[in-house]
Amino acid sequence: MKELKKISVIGMGLLGASISLAALRAFPSVLVCGFSHRKQTRQKARRLQVAGEIAESLEECVRDADVIIFATPIRTFPVLFGQIRPFVKHSCVITDVGSTKLMAHRWAREIFNSNIAYVGSHPIAGSEKRGVDFARDDLLAGANCILTKTPSTRLSALRLLKKFWGRLGCRVLVMTPQRHDRIFGHISHLPHIAAAALVNANSADILPFAGKGFLDTSRVASGPANIWTDILLTNPRNCIQGIDRLIAELKKIRTAISQQDERKIEFLLEKARTKREKMIAAKLKQKELF
Amino acid sequence: MKELKKISVIGMGLLGASISLAALRAFPSVLVCGFSHRKQTRQKARRLQVAGEIAESLEECVRDADVIIFATPIRTFPVLFGQIRPFVKHSCVITDVGSTKLMAHRWAREIFNSNIAYVGSHPIAGSEKRGVDFARDDLLAGANCILTKTPSTRLSALRLLKKFWGRLGCRVLVMTPQRHDRIFGHISHLPHIAAAALVNANSADILPFAGKGFLDTSRVASGPANIWTDILLTNPRNCIQGIDRLIAELKKIRTAISQQDERKIEFLLEKARTKREKMIAAKLKQKELF
Fold this sequence. Notes:
The structure is a homodimer of 290-residue chains.
Chain A: E1 6-10, H1 14-26, E2 31-35, H2 39-48, E3 53-54, H3 58-62, E4 67-70, H4 77-84, E5 93-96, H5 102-112, E6 117-118, E7 120-123, E8 144-148, H6 155-167, E9 171-175, H7 177-201, H8 212-218, H9 225-233, H10 236-258, H11 262-285
Parallel strand pairs in A: 1-2, 1-4, 2-3, 4-5, 5-6, 8-9
Antiparallel strand pairs in A: 7-8
């Protein structure tokens, strides 16, 4: 990592600003430069000193950068990739922290060709809080960070990013963007869809009776709608496949209830209970939960 | 409540034993008598002193009782109601703490006719822990308790139970069993079905990647399968209606994704987000959440 002189972070939301802050601590001799397209956010970021420098323009931010990290909404990537392309040096490594990876790889390939090294990153960290005000240098500590690569990914770029996220306290895993989007389509995007559908399925006169069960089951539906729209739009196939599977499982329970099939209901509920308990046990063993 | 001399609690699970313990504290001059059909549970209940007395038979437990509380699985009620019928005095008030109320009212009407006063109770309290070992005298403190009545409910019985649950620290609400089962079918039983279906929809290779979002969304699926089978079997119409509504909402999101309809996706997610935030705000205002 000695070769690193400048790290640029585009987007000063909670995640971007926290990455910037963590990089500032982890790489004291490197210039960490941040940028936000909103003037007000740039001013806040400066006041809160979440980066060594806050650039006034995208061009200024990425010029001479060794690593550029996009922490903006996923669907801004095609435009932003095009805008930075003329100013990025050949040896630069580009990544992003979006929650879907296939489209980002596609856009990077189309816009950068093989001139610039792109690797996808997905640090599994966040908070229900939003914005630069809540940036924390330990937001990524202990988090899993998935890196995505394709057959054309430059291995030196992958190695550099492995070290980068490792220094920020992440446990790094590498996989293809296809596998990433399939996994997260099912384990993250589908629960969001299910939670939103569950809230929308309930009428306003029912909701005041919600207890802890409903609150937990629907919690993720309180996430920002624009960011989640981005996620669902950039992972359509896996989301649709997930919805179809969920509907199929709901129909199994529906049939069992309408037939008053006690054994089948109990079988389906017990199957879910056992699967979930095994998952929790595995996570406890790996010290992912305490 | 001066007229109370004996309160009987049938079923020494977490809820039954906690009610017994709370009644013991709230009514020091009343005999609180517990019963479990399992010998081992009776012995534990005696050792833990969750009741003033643990009867060796159902008959002994309910004889001379002024209030009988059933805290056994819902579908045991028809048999148990029939078994106690010969031994219950005319002035006795019978209730249960099951999570569905329509079937309990039906069974009580069929078995007791109008000879014995039945009122449904549903204290919204519980824990992921199970069994008499975890009984606590404050499990019901601050909980909502819904009482269900029909046009034939004896009003003196309703008044007595209002006072009883109030003394145990509950906030009491009264409604018809129809309304109760509709509300809880949607706000409690449907989330359970959705959580179980969500877990079952995911393959075992995906689950190790589950994060906080998935864990919360699926949490209730870890509940005991036999108790939830009882609940779904005794509230079939509302569960089926809920599943149909949920599937309809899932299909709306599915269509919007497959048509890459950004505005529609964001509209649906934002609708859910806003509804949930309003619900949370109302609960905070009513001090149901802190």
